[in-house]
Fold Proline--tRNA ligase.
Amino acid sequence: MKFSKLYAPTTKENPKDAVLPSHIFLTRAGFIEQIGSGLYNFLPLGKMVLEKIKTIVKEEMDKAGAQELNLSFITPSDLWKESGRYSVFGKELLRFKDRKENEFVLGPTHEEAILSLVKNKITSYKQLPLHLYQIGLKFRDEARPRFGLLRCREFLMKDGYSFHSNEEDLQREFDLMYKTYSQIFTRLGFDFRVVNADSGAIGGSGSKEFMVLTDNGEDDILTCQNCTYAANIEVAKRAKKECKDERPEANYASRFHTPNVRSIEELADFFKINKFYTIKAIVKKAIYENESKFIVFFIRGCDELQEVKALNAANALELQDANEEELIKIGLCPGFIGFVGLKDIEFYIDQELENEKQMIIGANEKDYHLVGIDVVNLNKNRFKDLVAVKEGDCCIECGAKLKKSKGIEVGHIFKLGQKYSKAMNANFLDENGKAQAFYMGCYGIGVSRLVAVAIEASYDDKGCIWNKILSPFDLNIIISNMKDEKIVAYANNLYENLKKEGIKVLLDDRNERFGVKINDFELMGFPYALVIGKNFEENKLEFIQRKDLKKEVIDTNRVLEFIKKTVL
Amino acid sequence: MKFSKLYAPTTKENPKDAVLPSHIFLTRAGFIEQIGSGLYNFLPLGKMVLEKIKTIVKEEMDKAGAQELNLSFITPSDLWKESGRYSVFGKELLRFKDRKENEFVLGPTHEEAILSLVKNKITSYKQLPLHLYQIGLKFRDEARPRFGLLRCREFLMKDGYSFHSNEEDLQREFDLMYKTYSQIFTRLGFDFRVVNADSGAIGGSGSKEFMVLTDNGEDDILTCQNCTYAANIEVAKRAKKECKDERPEANYASRFHTPNVRSIEELADFFKINKFYTIKAIVKKAIYENESKFIVFFIRGCDELQEVKALNAANALELQDANEEELIKIGLCPGFIGFVGLKDIEFYIDQELENEKQMIIGANEKDYHLVGIDVVNLNKNRFKDLVAVKEGDCCIECGAKLKKSKGIEVGHIFKLGQKYSKAMNANFLDENGKAQAFYMGCYGIGVSRLVAVAIEASYDDKGCIWNKILSPFDLNIIISNMKDEKIVAYANNLYENLKKEGIKVLLDDRNERFGVKINDFELMGFPYALVIGKNFEENKLEFIQRKDLKKEVIDTNRVLEFIKKTVL
């Protein structure tokens, strides 16, 4: 394609509020443009990348035996009411009414829609398994759309849904999707990890996330240095933490005057013990569909509360911070909260504290702590996994050290089990003629997000660095001086010859200065450039690798062969 | 593909409220499924057809030099307010608010969005022309969604927008799109006509519709039997109508007592004249953005009012029928309305009545008509093209007879001129450094609608009849008896061999009776079937053409060659 015809408006100015390289460079290089909060247009270059991603996703999904379809983006609310998610999905679910006051949602995911589709159509175990997928629009009304394509509101997703007659067959498909997704992200050229994950609003009995490792990732993931264990920090487990420091000795439940000792640091200092032997309390306001209540979470003083784990323990829609006033109102003493005074208050304790002895904890009384507390004789249900696993903690599988990295979620596969099929009464007849709810899996890839992920994984301070698989063009030919007829003629001729060889060339034939053209090449980031410039008289051309900006002088007589060998 | 794996739930029951073959058969054959009013899922077979259509559309658009992009489906309302269409587009424009109470619309078309995109990016005539297009979702909140995919609410559209520095260049692109669209619809295998059309809510200085001829078309089109003139009835013109019958003689404006003569038929009978010499009045309530008013339209007694022409004459958003009570209230006498008593009422007269003499018209007085009325001395602006052209009327270009057909609109190309660019202040600098608003064109194809159009154009009482271009499969191999191992083995072997030849085969390997399989073949309508049945022992197979259900016996030893020759 000739650059003079390409619609790719480049700019030197960063988009406002942009902090991530992908947001900045994709916008500046004319791949995407924001049209509203969390709403993006894909310009021709962005669209080309998107199509390449879609093709690879489709090829691998088809190879795995899934069938492509398109579900209506606009979904009647009734389906969401049937599954129960209409009320619990929160404000991300955009609800609206049509001209006849009927209620609809903009589909943020399509479990309900797909179940309504197969219900009463798939009636026998003989018709199973079945895997249907689409690559289509989604909308999630994010509270704070940001990071360009990484957290936008309208986006393109590959969502697949599978149906099975039993748990084992669901597991087989889940494993197949694990392989299929791995193949997709490998083909796309990404460095990724598969991690255990929280199932969030989708739910189900187990899920894995595919994370591309990047410095700017939104997610923290923990990976074992020794074995294959890897997990999102939201669900990461660890071998039970131990401490070699001395345990504080004391009689059972001695009450100590600890004036102004409110923080865990102060407490450990005061008693000259390791924070490991203290218990801290975090109080949250838990929001449910029709009510809210305060919940206290107890963890070791040396640990941090993992919010998603706490949310799941509380089985709430949302957790909000509680302020001191609120604490006092329910009879808690800020800075000194402990097991005392919790009669009417729900509380959970981190599972590692079960049966722990001789601990120090607040007395729920100003300037007093209790020493020598044993965490025993409590209901099993009180104990939950609540702590945020840290780098350096030990692997639950093998005991080796865990390493923390930043990742961006690009895929997520779920074993839904019968969650939705039971709610929506979607049954089939099994081998014994008995009605059973479908076993379901669902599998998502954030297709439009991948365009940004590719750049987060590969950029420098000048702009994008596309890999060969995703780059819209294989080669950028730069005509240094449009007034030099010989150079122009040569470049056009070479361009035509390369096109015939199946090489996708962008010929920069714009009436622009050489500096502008080189800057645009570096900003747009196609893998290679060939400059036809001042040494052309001596039959010399300059070949540039975008990745490291390494330059090489090529003789005109071997240029065709060299390019064919290098760029494809 | 093996039928046992394909998700294509067929049914014998017609979808409720379905009247059109495409709606009935596409649903019954498992190509599409309705999920709500005017909302459809495309199942795997429907999706395959859709993809074939998209590919052809994309190939031809790219060949014409247009560049593909994707505009955000959700569009900020501000853009629509800027163009002025937010208030005038009517209820088809679905408006909603997000969680922050910001206003958006579901894009029914994207003139505003594309202008906002290129504005301040395309700043010089040197960057023109430019043509950008997308194949994306649209939503129009139809008052009465019906006819399956033909009048649904969420649909897939190819919409392209071109930008030019002058009228001539716009005309050049318009002509190019005329050719491109003709090529697309030819490749898709449609019998179509290009007709003059009303520009509707899109507006602009001229437009052409592409109509596929079908018995069940929503549109009436008139085509000259002699020359190339063709037009949608909404805008069709004719040579001025003439009448050889005698003109009624009378003194100027004689008042005649015509008791109970209210209809044009009764009037013509009463005076024993041709209806051509009478004038009838149709009163409509015209709805505007902030007001409504009654308007009287006068046409010959032998003609019918064309509603779209009347709407354009009134420049209103909508025309509603006026009832007798309303007429009386504004001083009109139902059944006897004429030019008398219109002092404060807006009225228009069909242009063919200009300077007409000795006409008969109501006296606006019960049981009285005026005879010998001359339609003279009226302001030019009163005269508009108002009548519905009929079959048998004469062509405005050559005078030959016009023929009426039914058509379905599949494409529409518009010369928008500067309508939107002026409203949105989208300018470029011309050769003289002067700011000018872009000259725009826009070009639409109803992509998902084409799936239905293909069936409206080709079906019989048993089901769909796909042409080779759009059919999801080239051949349907039917195993008559799954218990006959020899037949099953032979069929599987043939299936594998044909796949290697690049033939798309659906192998019906379901444990179903032969009758069910044949019925499904006829309902789904792939071009050919090969039955491996009872004569297989004698090395005979049965080959069926779906189009005419013609059967042919094929020897197994020549089957591969025969199929390769026939189906591709």
